[in-house]
Amino acid sequence: LSQRIQNIDFPVFGRIAALARNKDVIRLDAGEPDFPAPALIKDAAVAAIAADYNQYAPVPGLEELRRGIAAKIQEREGMVFEPLSQITVCCGATEGLAAAFLAIVNPGDEVILLEPAYTVYTPDVLLCGGSPVYVKLSPPEFRIERHKLEAAVSPRTKAIIINSPHNPTGRIYSQEELSVIAEFCLRHNLIAITDEVYEELTYDGVKMERLWKIPGMEERTIIVSGFSKTFSVTGWRLGYVVAPVLLSRGVQLAHNYLTVGTAAPLQRAAVTASQMPADYYRTLAALLQQRRDILLDGLRKVGFECRCPQGGYFILADCSRFGWQDDWSLAQYLIEEIGVAAIPLSGFYKKYPADNPVFLRFAFCKREETIRTAVERLQRLK
Ligand code: PMP
Ligand code: GLN
Q1: How large is the ipTM?
Q2: Residues 6+ away with beta carbon under 8 Å from 275
Q3: Whether the predicted pLDDT of 382 surpasses 90
Q4: Is 90 exceeded by the pLDDT of residue 67?
Q5: C-beta separation of 183 from 149 below 8 A
Q6: Does residue 185 sit in the same domain as residue 295?
Q7: Average pLDDT, the chain
Q8: Same structural domain for residues 252 and 355?
Q9: Torsion of CA 47, 49, 50, 56, to 10 degrees
Q10: Where is the Aminotransferase class I/classII large domain (predicted)?
């Protein structure tokens, strides 16, 4: 095997899924909805296949879809992009991230990752021959701090990646934190990749601020988002990258040779998705907020210490109360003895800090009944 492949490993999700498989386990590990996707979008996909829309789409994405994405972003965020030169439709945000890193990282370049870091960032950087440099966000706040960023930068630093709403903490970075990032990028001439896959899932009226909108950042920000979470279709593998023209050309080149494009009939259906009215987004966020509240209340009653997530799919639960030494043993006990699966936070670190409490991540993108059954089972931990 190549050195690059030997440098990476499979993420935590598959290992937890393997432990839970074929057991009577309520699955709050996976960030995937167990409720149906919108009928309108499913019907559009079925219709596209039936109408024989089954050959290659244009490699950077169906034009109508890229125009739809640009229109959606303009309408909801007031950000204006040229659809064909600035938007690339990818196989999930996952491939969009890989294409973005391939577009900008040279061997030997350093990329700053904030830990806990979503599991694909480190392997992406390593596969490009780059070096991840970690900045640890400290519990319980997990705030971005200027001095930690400054301590991580070097003449070889090329980029930083940030994710908000954040997986797994549920935080939405404040305008002040984004200003710190923007100043940092401008001072050190860095590119920012912003992973915004949970952008539409924000709760309690908290507004998600955009790094791209800070003066000077529009020419150095690569936005990665997608359809998985916004339309509850994680299995469709549809995402997109929005970037300044030069960087976007790099993303399109990488994407071209990685994939020759994403599933054509699903792109057709995604045109319908991109045209959903504002009410669709409000309803989805309200539904998820209600599920969050049920799980949050249940976890707290069992004795987990949880901050209320401002966005996304997950609650991060401090498990100190139960006296376990490490999160893997607790996660395994929950699966085998309690019948509930969750994700150990250490899966989001290269090396889990010894002074961090034991945390598990629970997903609430589930039917109410799923969450209530899980909470009922967790009572046995008390
Ligand atoms: N970024 C984050 C932070 C995620 O949580 C996920 C999926 N859970 C992705 C990217 C990848 O999303 P996609 O399904 O669009 O590949
Ligand atoms: N993004 C999903 C999560 O955070 C995992 C996707 C996967 O690799 N299965 O749960």
Answers
A1: 0.97
A2: 68, 71, 72
A3: no
A4: yes
A5: no
A6: no
A7: 98
A8: no
A9: 120
A10: 23-378
- In the chain, the percentage of residues whose pLDDT exceeds 90 is 99
SS3 112: strand
Binding site membership of 212 for ligand 1 (Cβ less than 6 Å): no
Indicate the top mutation candidate among 32, 166, 167, 227 to test ligand 1's pocket, ranked by most ligand atoms within 8 A of CB. Answer: 167
124: confidence class by pLDDT, cuts 50, 70, 90: very high
pLDDT at 3: 94
Count up the domains in the chain and report the number. 2
Contact status, residue 285 vs residue 205, Cβ threshold 8 Å = no
Nearest-angstrom CA–CA distance, 235 and 258 = 19
| 204 has a pLDDT exceeding 90 | yes
CB-CB contact of 116 with 349 (8 Å): yes
> Average pLDDT in the 125-131 region?
98
Domain shared by 43 and 147, yes or no: yes
Give 223-256 pLDDT, tens digit per residue.
999 999 999 999 999 999 999 999 999 999 999 9
C-alpha 247 to ligand 1 mean position (Å): 21
- Best residue among 28, 113, 118 to mutate for probing ligand 1, ranked by most atoms within 8 Å of CB: 118
CATH number of domain containing 14: 3.90.1150.10
275, 309, 332 — which closes off a domain? 275
Nearest CA residue ID for atom 8, ligand 2: 13
Residue 271 and residue 141 in one domain: yes
- Residue 67 sits in which domain range? 39-275
pTM of the prediction?
0.97
CATH number, domain with residue 249:
3.40.640.10
Residue partners of 347: CB distance under 8 A and separation at least 6: 11, 12, 13, 119
pLDDT of residue 205: 95
Distance 359 CA to ligand 2 centre (A): 17
Distance 232 CA to ligand 1 centre (A): 12
Which contiguous run of DSSP H or E holds residue 343?
Answer: strand 343-344
